[in-house]
């Protein structure tokens, strides 16, 4: 049975111990295992920002579209988000996660955005061994969001939110342009009132080498931008097999979300991915989610459409209902015509 003598923060054993069994695994026994490591398509965005050669710009745009169609994931260099800012955010992130669990969970830190474990899990395969702060960009500047030991955190998050938003709009505009579709859609519907920053921590898990830090899923947004550390653990589905993504300290990872797949009429792919925890080392990551308002209509950019029209709010409610009833997300197949 689950070894409650191994204490950890958050207190997974105390809350979820009944889910775990020493003979139960997640990553290798029932979802295909790992066939190897991969390096994501690497794209240098310098040509987009320098205002230089048009041929180089077109080649960069083509590479982004190809990776979004074939992989659903890619990594970018010269992305415009300063390395010093990312490292500063990492230091603030380590500081907040280092607080006692009771303070993280009960003191309404960062707009009361703290989450841990998986409240809906009925088995270990539905459980995420992780904790996070999921923060709306519009809430970062509010009074009381950062105070005391976190007094320096607001300014760092504000700067990071601006930089990530600029990058997300740039990439979304390129993907729209590749479809001969106006990029104004994203400028009009995705802003600080609808997008999020998520600070993630994956504590060491001594109980199983195959525990999920984040269960297999696709992202329910347009685009996600990820900054991860060197521990590794991110895996994605490629050609019906799980592959492990090699960390690269000089890049940001970008992946297509469900809304972009529907909006592009399946031209771009929202790919299933997961995070596996480490038995001895904690892992940190920072994610930016490009989302529209809940009443934004997500229609395919051309007809005949593979999906019926739906709002982002409708999509979110359906995802939540499926998770509540079955323990897992169904996603876009619910909205196929």
Automatic annotation (TrEMBL):
Residues 191-292 form the Fe2OG dioxygenase domain. It comes from the Eukaryota. One of its GO terms (molecular function) is metal ion binding. Keywords: Dioxygenase, Iron, Metal-binding, Oxidoreductase. It is an enzyme of class 1 (oxidoreductase). It catalyses: gibberellin A1 + 2-oxoglutarate + O2 = gibberellin A8 + succinate + CO2. Its EC number is 1.14.11.13. The keyword tRNA-binding does not apply. One of its GO terms (biological process) is gibberellin metabolic process. Coiled coil: none annotated. Belongs to the iron/ascorbate-dependent oxidoreductase family. GA2OX subfamily. PANTHER family: 2-OXOGLUTARATE (2OG) AND FE(II)-DEPENDENT OXYGENASE SUPERFAMILY PROTEIN-RELATED (PTHR47990). This is gibberellin 2beta-dioxygenase.
């Amino acid at each position: 049975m689950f070894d409650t003598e191994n204490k950890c923060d958050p207190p997974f054993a105390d809350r979820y111990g009944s889910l775990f069994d020493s003979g139960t695994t997640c990553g290798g026994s029932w979802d295909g295992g790992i066939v190897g490591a991969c390096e994501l398509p690497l794209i240098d965005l310098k040509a987009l920002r320098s205002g230089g050669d048009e041929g180089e710009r077109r080649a960069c745009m083509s590479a982004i579209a190809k990776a979004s169609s074939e992989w659903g994931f890619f990594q970018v260099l010269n992305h415009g988000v300063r390395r010093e800012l990312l490292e500063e955010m990492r230091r603030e992130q380590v500081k907040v996660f280092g607080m006692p669990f009771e303070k993280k969970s009960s003191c309404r830190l960062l707009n009361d955005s703290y989450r841990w474990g998986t409240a809906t899990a009925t088995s270990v395969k539905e459980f995420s061994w992780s904790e996070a702060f999921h923060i709306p960009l519009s809430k970062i500047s509010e009074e009381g969001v950062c105070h005391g030991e976190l007094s320096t955190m607001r300014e760092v998050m504000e700067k990071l939110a601006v930089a990530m938003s600029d990058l997300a709009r740039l990439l979304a505009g390129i993907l729209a342009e590749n479809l001969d579709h106006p990029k104004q859609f994203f400028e009009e519907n995705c802003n600080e009132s609808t997008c999020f920053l998520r600070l993630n921590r994956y504590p060491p898990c001594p109980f199983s080498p195959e525990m999920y830090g984040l269960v297999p899923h696709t992202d329910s947004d347009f685009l996600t931008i990820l900054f991860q550390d060197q521990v590794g653990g991110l895996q994605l589905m490629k050609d019906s097999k799980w592959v492990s993504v090699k960390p690269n300290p000089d890049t940001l990872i970008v992946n297509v979300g469900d809304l972009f797949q529907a909006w592009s009429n399946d031209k771009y792919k929202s790919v299933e991915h997961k995070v596996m925890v480490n038995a001895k080392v904690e892992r940190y990551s920072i994610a930016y989610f490009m989302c529209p308002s809940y009443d934004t209509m997500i229609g395919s950019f051309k007809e005949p459409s593979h999906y019926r029209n739906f709002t982002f709010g409708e999509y979110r409610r359906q995802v939540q209902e499926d998770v509540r009833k079955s323990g897992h997300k169904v996603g876009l197949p619910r909205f196929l015509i």
